[in-house]
Amino acid sequence: MIYFAHAMTDYGTPREQQALNLLAETFENVKVLNPNEQQHSDAAHAFKRTNLNCMEYFCALVRECSRVAFLPTHDGMIGPGVMKEIVEAHIFGKAVWEIDLYGHQIIPFEMPRVLTVKDILDRLAKNAT
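^ that's the sequence the OP posted. Answer follows.
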């Protein structure tokens, strides 16, 4: 399953639909988890009542997926919520893809110099010997 990370300002817009179409074309037969679905909106609001930061709910969804595809803003920037989801995916060793609507492609996204949990455990194991 692919988590579709995108800014709330893109929810319900043609950009969102274009990205969903491109995801379906690129990753055939793979379910896309869209945080804009009503069930996630309801759950996030319920989560907010007991926690200050509803992003923790969305990060839990990221951990349930095998990879993340994100849509940057129209000017190519990455907002803080989407970046938190990207970092969450990276830390847990999940592939991250960037959706490029202008080039009509989905490309791998690299996080330079950020270790995953596995990287840290491997380093600790190596130092223990």
